[in-house]
């Protein structure tokens, strides 16, 4: 799963670099010792490495996989080869090469979700409320049986399943519900209560609940197939939902509502991928799209060693008219390595401890 996503990400860097005439030394899936590889006719070494937790494209003249320039290596090259070095390209070319990785992940997510929507459609239920439990969050907030849900937090609700998902992914967070009641549009703000549920694989999840059910008199589940043009908007809406809920999930940790058990690293990705694979290839492909989007967004964080950190450097360079000093960049990379390394260690330990608790309990 990660190999496919990393390949897409690094291929974005690689293709835009090639289009800009940049000499590429290595295209690696994974880190550490090389397991197998070959050289192409352009002199690039394509290889599969021992530690499958990422990958990189290393340009000629780079000191390391983080694309820090090596002044000694650059000085040793003949003058006619230096024009092909990444470090000697203009700031906008370097910006485009770095941005291409996350952009490839976003494009991959869009294409996968769009193809699944066109190929399989989506099952939907009319978004009409049937029962409202007495004393529930919904009852206290003013929701009534027969209300038709129009939107939640600005996301259009096409079916009751959309309403359920939007509420479930907002535990303990206020949501704004727009509804149609007898032809009149009303807006209600409520905060779903936090409920811990266990899925079929034994995983615990914090979800939001308000105490409503669908109106069964509105008909059974139907298969909805959008047209090619309509599916574009629906796919972008789905991606916006994923980004919004991911940001809200991370924001919970800054206000003390976060659940550390919901965080996961490579171990959890492997376990979840295996579980989702039992549901069928479509579910697994959908998970790949979700992970690709999140990895693309994570790489845009303004942390040196991540793509977002490089983009921040180039933005500063474009504004100043000259790059930051090598010393300033080196300090930034060290800080970035510390941040990313700490996060990797934390998620690995967290995954390992949670896996141990799952087995012992």
Short description:
This protein is α+β, with helices and mostly antiparallel strands. The chain is built from 11 helices and 12 strands.
SS elements, strand count: 12
Structural class: alpha+beta
* Percentage beta strand: 15-25%
Which whole number gives the mean pLDDT?
87
Query: Number of helix segments?
Result: 11
Number of domains: 3
Sequence of strands across the biggest β-sheet? 6-5-7-8
Q: Percent range for helical residues?
A: 40-55%
Could you characterize what this model shows?
It is a single chain. Helices cover 49% and strands 21% of the residues. With 361 residues, it is an alpha+beta fold. The protein has 3 domains: 21-88, no CATH class; 91-121 and 227-361, no CATH class; 123-224, Pdz3 Domain. Strands 6-5-7-8 form a 4-stranded antiparallel sheet. Helix 1 (2-19) crosses helix 4 (91-120), helix 1 (2-19) packs across helix 9 (281-298) and helix 7 crosses helix 9. It is elongated, with a radius of gyration of 24 Å. The two termini are 28 Å apart. The model has no long low-confidence stretch (mean pLDDT 87).
Task: Reconstruct the topology from this structure.
Blueprint: H1 2-19, E1 24-39, E2 45-59, H2 71-76, H3 79-82, H4 91-120, E3 122-124, E4 129-132, H5 137-141, E5 148-152, E6 155-156, H6 160-168, E7 175-181, E8 184-190, E9 193-198, E10 204-209, E11 212-214, E12 222-224, H7 228-254, H8 266-277, H9 281-298, H10 307-320, H11 326-360
Antiparallel strand pairs: 1-2, 3-12, 4-11, 5-6, 5-7, 7-8, 9-10
Helix pairs in contact: 1-4, 1-9, 4-7, 4-9, 4-10, 7-9
């Amino acid at each position: 799963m990660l190999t496919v996503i990393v390949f897409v990400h690094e291929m974005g860097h690689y293709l835009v670099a090639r289009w800009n005439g940049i000499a590429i030394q290595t295209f690696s899936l994974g880190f550490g010792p090389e397991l197998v590889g070959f050289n192409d006719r352009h002199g690039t070494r394509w290889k599969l490495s021992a530690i499958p937790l990422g990958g990189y494209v290393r340009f000629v003249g780079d000191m390391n996989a983080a694309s820090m320039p090596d002044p000694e290596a650059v000085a040793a090259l003949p003058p006619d080869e230096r024009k092909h070095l990444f470090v000697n390209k203009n700031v906008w070319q370097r910006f485009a090469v770095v941005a291409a990785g996350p952009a490839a992940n976003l494009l991959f997510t869009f294409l996968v979700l769009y193809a699944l929507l066109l190929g399989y459609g989506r099952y939907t239920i009319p978004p009409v409320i049937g029962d409202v439990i007495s004393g529930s969050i919904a009852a206290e907030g003013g929701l009534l049986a027969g209300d038709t849900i129009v939107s939640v937090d600005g996301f259009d609700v096409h079916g009751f399943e959309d309403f359920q998902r939007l509420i479930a992914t907002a535990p303990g967070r206020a949501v704004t519900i727009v509804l149609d009641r007898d032809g009149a549009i009303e807006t209600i703000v409520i905060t779903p209560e936090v409920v811990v549920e266990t899925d079929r694989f034994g995983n615990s999840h914090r979800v939001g609940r308000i105490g409503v059910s669908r109106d069964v008199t509105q008909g059974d589940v139907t298969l909805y197939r959008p047209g090619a043009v309509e599916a574009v908007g629906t796919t972008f809406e789905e991606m916006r939902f994923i980004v919004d809920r991911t940001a809200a999930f991370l924001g919970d940790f800054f206000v003390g509502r976060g659940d550390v058990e919901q965080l996961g690293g490579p171990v959890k990705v492997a376990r979840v991928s295996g579980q989702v694979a039992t549901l069928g290839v479509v579910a697994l492909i959908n998970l790949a799209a979700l992970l690709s989007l999140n990895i693309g967004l994570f790489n845009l964080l303004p942390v040196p060693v991540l793509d977002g950190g490089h983009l921040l450097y180039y933005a500063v360079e474009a504004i100043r008219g000259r790059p930051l000093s090598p010393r300033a960049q080196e300090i930034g990379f060290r800080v970035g390595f510390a941040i990313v390394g700490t996060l990797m260690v934390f998620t690995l330990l967290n995954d390992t401890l949670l896996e141990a608790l799952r087995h012992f309990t």
